[in-house]
Amino acid sequence: MKFDPVEPGIYPELIYPAYKSTVKRGPQQPALRIEAPVPTSRNIVAGPHILLPHDTDLTAHGASEPLGEKIVVTGRVVDEDGKPVRNSLVEVWQANSAGRYWHSRDQHAAPLDPNFHGLGKMLTDDDGRYRFVTIKPGPYPWGNHDKAWRPAHIHFSLFGNVYAQRLVTQMYFPSDPLFDYDPIFQSVPDEAARQRLISRFSMEQTVGGEMLGYEFDIVLRGRNATPMGL
Amino acid sequence: MSNASNKITTSQTIGPFSHEAWQWAVDACIPGNLKTTGDTVLVTGNIYDGDGAPINDAQIEAWTPIGAALEPEQMIPGFRRVPSGADGEFSLRVSLPQPAVRGEPLMYVTVFARGLVLHQFTAVFLEDDAGLAESTILNQVPEARRATLLARRTGEGQYHWDIRMQGEAETVFFDYA
Question: What's the complex ipTM?
């Protein structure tokens, strides 16, 4: 597998003053582009033995149903050639419907939901597809600037099929009024790249009488080194 | 050529609230429970921001592709994940590939943190590895910056390696071709 240089604007700006925490944490030197055989040919092996019951149903972790709008989130993970990224570990985490994380450092004055911890993981199938059931997260305030509220989002951590495909990103929901005011979302210069972080409402994935459906496809870096047909 | 459907998904910060979701893999590689058929080394270090202040909410992942063969009974062979502590401290006990490392990284490392909008890839080499001069990776790194990738020996099987996100001693981070 080979990794084309990422076009300017696709990745967020490592130092983006509007997002204050980047100023002292983003590297100042450009990443050094190197040839390294191993990261492009191997990866950790995470098989089904790592999965627990209900890892893909985040609404099934408590004694009863969590509060909020139950949704299904699904999509395909592919590489830059459109080939499925198979049997690959995906982790997700998110705030509850009131916009609060199950995390000791989240002291937002919104209720915790004892029936919703907001943690899940899964492996993609042979078609690169993942699917999980959850609660639509709420927006929440953070300390970055006056009236700083994050758009509702779900965090995704993906391992891919080789080490250099690793990605952590966030999935957003359509038509969120906070997009224009969120420096994390805005730290990606390329408009089209930002739009690709927004999931699509899907009537096809909606489960009648139970939950609305959202689709979010993910493209990891990497191409087959040998062109097709050779 | 690429088209709209296969353009990469961009990165976003891991945020400060990843710990509970990532803990299962931290638990899976607790040093005291490490099942390996090889020798191990302990690498300790701290992660610092541009002011030299510790980063206390980072997540550090290490992968030892050669060492993975020594750990077939581990839940995820060759893989480690640790959060940084209050002083930015972290420690990783990893299998030492045999024979000697010989210019290969001891481990590939990935760094995540709030405010780090794109995770950063780096690699750690042992300063007393006799093969460093022949390292295919180190030889691609400007000589003046190579020291940022070397773990200093502090004792038998013990090394120290810090991560600096900015400044004169900024750790070398990689993009792979």
Answer: 0.95
